[in-house]
Every structure is written in C-alpha cells, then in structure tokens.
C-alpha cells in the first residue's frame, strides 16, 4: 500500500480510507511469501515475453501481431470500428513502447526505461497525416508520455545520465496542442476524431461518446500543471461541464451524443462501454486535483448508478430519461467498477460484484466481452477476450483494501489462464471466441500498460511505497501532489485519522456510504452498520408512499423497494 508518510497522502480521504483499510487487515495467510515471489516472477516473465516480442517484431510500429510475428500501425484503427479513413502514409508511433514505459518503472527496469525514453525523445513525432480517436490517443499516448515524464524526473526513478531534458513533456505538449482544434465546436464538446497533422477533417462525424468527451481531464489537467499552459485543462473541463449539464433529471447520461447540437443520440447507458471512464475520471480527478466540483458530479452520478443500474451484484443498462432497464448484459469492461468502488470505500458492494465477474471468468476460462444476464448465455457475436485488464485491476484494488489472500488466488487463476490460453511463441494473442479459444493475431498495448501491471502490483506493490498514485484508465500512474490540489477537501478528512487506525469498525467506514446512507449513521460515530452504498432511503422518513418512485433501494438486498397497496415502501416479493 502507498506509504502513510507522504504529506500529500493525508490530503486525500479517499486513499486514506484505503490506507486505513489495509493498515489493519490481517497479514496474508494463504499465500506465503515464497508463493508471492513465484507469482510475481511469473508476471514478470509474461511482461517481458510480450515486450521483447514487440521490440523484436513490431517496434517502432504500434502493436504486435503475435501469431505472424509482425506489426500493425493500429493507433488510427483504435475505436474505428468500420476502419474508415485510414492513413495512407503512417508508420506508427511506437505505441506499445509508449504504453510500456510506466510498467518498466513498476517492474524496476530503469535501464530499459531510459533506453525507451531516449529513443522516443529522439524519434517520435506527431506531425503525421493520421486521423486518430481523441479519447484513445489521450489515454494511451498523452497519458503514457505524461506519466513517463513524471517518473523520469521523480526522485525515485530519475534518469541518471543527464540526457533527459523534458523531451517527453515537449512531446506531450505538442500532442496536446494537436488535440485543441477538436474542442472548437459550438458546445465545447470535442470531436471524437482528429487528424494529428491537419486538425478536424472535412465532413467529420459529429457523434461521440460520453467517455470520449468526459474522460480527458486527468491527462490534460496534468499536462496543464506540468507545462503551465492552462488551455489543456480548460478545454477538458469545459467539455466535462457541458456534458454534465446534459444529464437527465435522474442524474443519468446517455452513451452517445452530437458535439455540434449537444443532443443525445443513444439514451441508454450503463457503467460499461462508452461511459465507463466518465465515472472513473470524476472520482480520480477529485483525488488528483482536490476540486469539490468533481466530487459533486461524482457523488450525484454514483448515486444514480446505484439506484438505476444496479440489480444485486449486477449492473444493467437503463434509459437516462426514465431510469427503466434496457439491456441486461454483463460486459467485460464493467469489471473495472468494483475497483472504482474501492476508491470510494464501498468494499462490500465491490466484493460482491467482483465475485460475480470472477465466476464468469472461471466458467469460460477468460472474461467474454458480453454476457446476456437475462438469458444466462453468451452474446452471439461478442464472444471475444482481447486480453482486457479490468478484472485484474479490480482484484488489485480489492486486495489492497482488504489484504484478503483470496484475491491473490483470483490473480493466480487469471495469470494461469492467460498463460494457458493466450501465450504463443510470438507474444500474447487475443481470444476471438471464448467457446473455442480460437486466437486472434493481435497483442493490444493495454496488455502491457494495464493487465501485466495490475497483476504484478497484486504480488509486489513496492512501487507504491512512499507515494500515492492515481492510475489513469490506461493504467498510467500520476502521483498525488499537494501542490496540484486546487483546494483541500477539508470536509472529508477526519481530523484525527491516525487514531482511527486502531478501531476495527473502521473497516466498514466509507466516507461515501456515510453520505449515501444518512439514515443509518449512529450519531456521528464511526461504528456504522453499513453494508453497502446501494442503499437509497425512501422519499418519506415514515416510509409512506403513493407510487414506487417514492421508494428507495434496500440496503441489504440492494433491491428496489416498492409501494404496497397499503401505501408503505417495502420489499414485497409477491405484490398482492
Ligand atoms: C513509411 O514507410 C515507408 C516504407 O518504408 C516509407 O516509404 C514512407 O516514407 C514512410 N512514411 C513516413 C511518413 O515516414
Ligand atoms: C530490462 O529489460 C530488458 C529488455 O527487455 C531486459 O533485457 C533486461 O533483462 C531487463 N532488466 C531487468 C533488470 O529486468
Ligand atoms: C532514433 O532512431 C534511430 C533509428 O532507429 C536510431 O538509430 C537512434 O539510435 C534513435 N535514437 C535514440 C536516442 O535511440
Ligand atoms: C466478500 O464476500 C465473501 C462471500 O460473500 C465473504 O466471505 C467475504 O468476507 C467478503 N469480504 C469482504 C471484505 O467483504
Ligand atoms: C477521533 O475521532 C473520533 C470520531 O470523531 C472520536 O470518537 C475519537 O474520540 C477521536 N480520538 C481522539 C484521540 O481524539
């Protein structure tokens, strides 16, 4: 766990909750330290197998094709489902190397980190005629560069030979400037696509997703702080505020929208594809920048998610206008949600959802992209597993918060399946169909930036010693610095937090659940009997109601309470 000694650490109550939780968790009993070292080394070998094959067969192109041991210049294909307007003359941006830099530091390989940083400093250019997805390019390339720049200048991992003169920051600034024309719309919401050399193209599509315009603030905010140029953060913040202003009266957002008119296109949304990192960036921006505005947006939207999307441990989709369920599907991307719930301290809810995702992993051997909850079967076409990190990520967060050795066993299962099903001579290959385990010729860069990193951190978190980090949605660490905080979130810091460490009940304490369940607080004491933040109180304290809408969510079963014929809210299984 991140060190309690750091001054910045005590500024964030969220991580503080995490600190408190891990401070008194019992030492891991199940997996001995020899086993931990063994598993860590297994992950290290996976990373180098993926990395070295990339460096030999694909670098400086974007990604490795592990079955044919060749490459793909895929940066312009990311998010480009129909593969439209592909560049004619583009030879890659060393994407997988950019994505690997922070993982090399987490694994302690400073020599290779330095070699990569210097190569990029000399050779990377964004003056290329390539149309890229703003969201993907932001989280992978800008995030990778900003994080690597901070790590290269950090006291722990500072590059030694005096050859590093902020070249990665210069590259990041250059890339950030190439993003800015995308934001020149009547709404301030950015186009989803931008040509790195020529800006927004003629007849460019005006459709984008909620995550496409609502999850830019970590990278662009960090870039503004590092360069002193406020334009990056201002553009991302303006887009985020506009997006938030488009929420429904239920505090729900849709999945896709038009950046010119500011109208919604797809009204149904959930916590998975197209929306996921919007929620993630609200809470992480609050942790990184300490600005209450992010907290207020997050708090309202988290409550809305728990109220309208959650059904027991599952999350379905709902229409933003009515809150009515639309699609009952589990998607692989949703598996990040328990990790986010750990950041807000909602351990019980995180634990129960994470278990369901793991059962599905266990059932198929890997996590299928989409599973139809209502039919209990796989989606007919989305049966693939592209080496996604989300379950490993949540497992890492849950282990950090609970130190329950069961999560290491989960990690072991994930590692064993990855090696068994996806490791090939030339790297790691995506699974095309989880029912046949047929492979696909693609090693995604996030396998190196996230999947391997979170699995490694599960068994060796020494990288986190003495410094708290926020991990971007692509797994790139950004340190939490007091000097980056606009305003300290005083209201959320217990004045005497060190003494709380000794009280067992604090395991249950979640600053968020305190806000979600005011009805169950017992006079401001920390011994709250709170199981889960899914609880939503009934509208009236006396539980009287006229319609179901006036009833909340039951705190133990997480079911929607309904209005009985007698006019009281309750869990009526058989409505008379
Ligand atoms: C890409 O590579 C090809 C073949 O090596 C070369 O002809 C072309 O000039 C390169 N394009 C750029 C933009 O560097
Ligand atoms: C660092 O990475 C390089 C390239 O993969 C590898 O050859 C070297 O053994 C690694 N060093 C350590 C200490 O792991
Ligand atoms: C830049 O790329 C060229 C060609 O691959 C290489 O020879 C050179 O060493 C690279 N620069 C650095 C600093 O690695
Ligand atoms: C997680 O859930 C399991 C099964 O319900 C339970 O045994 C375990 O104690 C829970 N752990 C936490 C930290 O809530
Ligand atoms: C710390 O705060 C808690 C909760 O407000 C309180 O119950 C406890 O007495 C305080 N401890 C000390 C040492 O001040």
Automatic annotation (TrEMBL):
Cofactor(s) named in the record: Ca(2+)
Signal sequence extent: 1-30
Primary localization: endoplasmic reticulum
Molecular function terms, GO-annotated: calcium ion binding; mannosyl-oligosaccharide 1,2-alpha-mannosidase activity
Compartments where located: Endoplasmic reticulum
UniProtKB keywords: Calcium, Endoplasmic reticulum, Glycoprotein, Glycosidase, Hydrolase, Metal-binding, Signal
Catalytic EC class: hydrolase
Residues of the active site: 136, 276, 369, 390
Enzyme Commission number: 3.2.1.-
Species this chain originates from: Musa acuminata subsp. malaccensis (Wild banana)
Protein name: alpha-1,2-Mannosidase
Family listed: Belongs to the glycosyl hydrolase 47 family.
Gene3D superfamilies: 1.50.10.10
Pfam families, A to Z: Glyco_hydro_47
Binding site residues for Ca(2+): 473
InterPro entries: 6hp_glycosidase-like_sf, EDEM1/2/3, Glyco_hydro_47, Seven-hairpin_glycosidases
